[in-house]
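hi!! sorry for the late reply, been swamped w classes. u asked for the two structures so here they r. pasted raw, havent cleaned anything up. first the sequence of the first protein and right below it the tokens
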Amino acid sequence: MNDHLQPDTPNPNINRNGLTPEYIEAGHKLREKLLYRIQMGDQELMTDFEKDPFLKLSDDQFNLLNRVPNNKMRSYKNILLSHNTLYSYAAEKGGLSPWQCHFISEKYAIMIEHAETISKLDQIHLYMIKEYSDPKIRKSNSGSLTIVEKAENYIEMNFAEDISMEEIARKIHVHPSHLMRAFKKEKGITISTYRNLRRMKEAKELILNSNLSMTEIAIMVGFSNPQYFSKFFKEVEGITPVEFKKLKKK
């Protein structure tokens, strides 16, 4: 993004709160452009975000981290929570399903609240920008998708929901038996396993970035049976979710 605030921006210290109206207006325009790029699923956004200091909230170009006196962590968390809502809304306008927006927003709200350092909040903000602007998880209206691709898209938009094979097949207008055979042939795994792997991907994020219990995480990502979640996790990773957390936290 090349439209960041220029060095000739009016001196931000000339008024009582340290920010001129021009400076604030320029910042709001930047935010609007950021939200638009999230809405459009701009694949160049991450590169520009990492380069432009005016998009990084912790650089505090607008004195946002002083909103809660003597508590920058609480200030930053409050700001990220509000941005989480803005990003979710922009992504939904761009084709992210309401269910996905709800799940992703809830996930990041938990991660934000459980973060313990400014650097961790920086990392979460990066995750948020990357996921909300990812075009691969948006709805596709392409009529050229194979039934396997349609099934993948449907699972992506509903992976934590308790939806039967018959319902998935009905949603993509194909016979369940044909869908099962085609999916196994192309992906080498069953739809059930594919969905559980997708759930596990989200579970790992929550294990590493929250203080939720393993039961809470299992239920949140779609495993109605926490014991099965732990068993499946160990089959894939070779260790239990608890062991995974201990290993990664070292």
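now the second protein. again sequence first, tokens right under
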Amino acid sequence: MVFQTGYYSEYMFFEIIDELRESWPALKLNYNKMPTTDQHRGLENGSIDMAIGLELPHWEEAGFKIKKLKKEETLIVVSNDHRLAQKDHLEYNDLCGETFYLTSPNGYQVDRIFKDVFCLDDVRQVEVTSSEIAYFKVLSENGVTISNPHDPYLLNNPYYHSIPFESEYSDSYVCVTNPNNTNPVIKLFMDLIEDGEL
């Protein structure tokens, strides 16, 4: 099972992974994280049985089998020194003039995420190579990024403030498999997900 880098969906699955290990100790389970392009390649060549990541159009276009898992709240993340750090919710004009530091695939989605929700006048978008760099830029450049509640950078971190917002867009996680893959562990995992109600 491979989780998409840059996102933290694995934190939703640790209980299920532990249950798999305890219930079937003879199973050899391998876990890793990699970019979505490598997940795609591994599913095609059979080196990966399951990929967990964001719901993106290319999964369906490639003919993979997709199981929707969970929709996540999206958060605006700022430093505790940022002008928005005292806010619990955002108003229409709050993001005007901000610089967003985002990793791919979010780099192309700012307009979609915030369209008709916030004013985007003078908003700048800078794509960075990793979440770590995005968070560094939030602190060093007093910028903004987006994340989800599972992000370990945010959990009990005194340097950042996060603000949830409502939008038609939110991260949806999916489990992706190759329909030709008959590994029985896939069904075991899916059954545990359904029983656990993520």
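hope this helps!! also noticed smth abt the second:
The helical segments are 10-23, 36-45, 57-61, 110-114, 131-140, 184-196.
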